[in-house]
Amino acid sequence: MNDFRVSTEIHPPFTVINVYGELDIATEPELRRRVEGILDHPTARLLFDLSDVEFLDSTGLQIIFDTYVRLGRGHRVAVCGLSPRVKKVFDALGLSDEIDIYADCADAFSHPDGGLT
C-alpha cells in the first residue's frame, strides 16, 4: 500500500481536505474519521483536493457523496484535481452534475460561491 495521508487547511470559505496516495477500502476509515471531525464543526464549504490521489475506488467516492448528501446537497461540497480517469467515473455516475468540480484549488478559490463543471 502506498503512503496515504490526509491533511486539512482553512481557505475561506473552504475547508480543504487534501488527500494523498491511494483512497480505497483500506484507507477509507482514516478519511471518514477526518471528514466526520470536520462535520462536527460548522464550515461554509468542503473542498476535497484529489490532485495527489493515485487511485480512488468506490469507497472513496462514497465518502464524498455521503458528505454531499449530509450537508444538504447544493454547493457545500466540491472536489478538485481529478485525474481524467477519476473524472470519467464522476461523469458516469452522474456526480459531475451534482458536485462542483474544479480543475485545482486555485480555480475553486476563484469561484467561492459555486463551481464550474
UniProtKB/TrEMBL annotation:
Lineage: superkingdom: Bacteria
Gene3D superfamilies (alphabetical): STAS domain (3.30.750.24)
One GO MF term: anti-sigma factor antagonist activity
Domain STAS: start-end pairs: 4-112
One Pfam family in the UniProt entry: STAS
Family of this protein: Belongs to the anti-sigma-factor antagonist family.
Protein name: Anti-sigma factor antagonist
